[in-house]
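Forwarding these from the shared drive since the link keeps breaking.
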Amino acid sequence: MKKFLKVLIVLILIVIIIVAVFICKGYNMYKEAVDNVSLEEKVAEIKSKENYTEFSELPPMYVKAVISVEDKRFYNHNGIDIIAIGRALVNDIKAMSYVEGGSTITQQLAKNMYFTQEKIIERKIAEVFMAWQIESNYSKEDIFELYVNTIYFGDGYYTVKDACKGYFNKELDEMTDYECILLAGIPNAPSVYAPTKNPDLAKQRQKQVMRKMIENGLLTEEEANEILNSYEN
């Protein structure tokens, strides 16, 4: 029994050391990023984009759809969602592969602003430090606004305003609920869900977004059916 406890303690210490090493690497990656370009400079650069879209311009249905499918606890966390991370970890272990990330909207913004898409542990940790800094300096509306101006919508569109114009030939305030929900699902995999590439898959993704909205109480079954029927009619 004593031998087993000694082995267990050694294993725990090894795990702690490994975790500490990755945390240090992640923090250094984060620190190097903000030392090279400050957060304020990055935000100013994003806001200088042509067709930069402000939060007040976004249709409420679009905001609800994005939050439902990307980060349902967006307004209740400080940059990271422990529940989502735990769920993603379980699913990754089951699949024996990196299939789910558990990243919040703030973490995705941090990645888009500073880091590559490379799936390495230290980058994920750097994201966490960056997300905390973003949350400490900007409101939720600011963060959401920056997010929809840094994600890729496919077909060369990097702002929600450009995507709306490109896919629907409309201004943001002209989008229907159907189009809002369709657009919210595209950034998950733009090359797959862009309606110009795979219209059927785009509609399947739209239904997934609707299902999330229903689960989160932001849409009823009846409302979802009405939205779908309004397009078909």
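-- next protein --
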Amino acid sequence: MKILITGANGFLGKKLSLRLLDQGHELYLLVRNRNRLNAFMDKEGEGYSRQIHILEGDVTEKNLGLNMELVKSLTGEIDAIYHGAALLSFDEKDRDRTYQVNVEGTKNVLEFSLEISCCKVFYISTAYTVGQETSGSETLYSMDRSFVNPYEASKCEAEHLVYGYSNKLETVILRPGIIIGDSKTGEADTNFGLYGFLKGVKILKKRADRRQGDKKCRIFLDPEVAQNFVPVDYVIEVLEAALFHSRNRDIFNITNPNPPRQSEILSIVKEILDFPQLQMHSLSSSDDMSNEEKAFYDSMSIFHSYFQRTIDFPTGHTERMLTSAGLPLLNMDREVLKRIIEGFLTDKARVPS
């Protein structure tokens, strides 16, 4: 198949590209600057050059910023589009730009699909379009809800756009949870989500080592709250399976049916870093925090809402789709989670041979 991918420069986009290339597909990778793909082409993409066409463009522009001659050459040639390009910012100051990329950009991709007669669009959204609720579904969420940040709101609005085009195109919405490293290698080319937290804990460990004492180091999180981590290779499996086993208007939660609790995550971190002084406490008041503890707490402020609640994400649609593809639902045990966390904390992620 000939497949166009937006957001090909991202962590998920590169992994998806490699999987599809390995399956023999011909890819059209949309990037704003082709130079940013040089490292990928020289390393992971080496040997696939005949299957890769790089398109310099921008989802915020009409026809994705491609000239009309190129648009005409693509007409009738593209079998499917994976739209993954997005601005991942939780900052209120970036609201306008977030909507421009995530909402207007999605509309441009949908219009482009019609322009080139590509009838199938896979929209890579996020499980957190559920907003501030604690129970999700594999249906289209109402926009009449409270969202934690502009990113969530923009992705939910984009989902409505995608669904609205389902009478003209075959559209599928895919909602990953919090994407972490590869379950087999631990490899992760990202510093967001879990990795921002781990980076902060490494700093706490260095400071504790300098003190050379047994003074306890506290972080303020609810140990019973679960985090919906999903390994990137599982996300890729679901995205690929959807190419052949999904139907128009399908919505899939690519989430963890048994997400790890924060106490389990902390236990693994303490073991890997040999950091017994690190303790987790539920937050009752910030008044008794030390300056160091408060600095860590404040540095995680954009994630506070996610640290404070467990969200249930049903995966019935996803499980049925995977079953038809002969694939299992995610089963991420402690060993897999430890491998992924260890890969970041010790810089020992195994590179596939």
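The radius of gyration is 21 Å. The first helix runs from residue 11 to 22.

- D.
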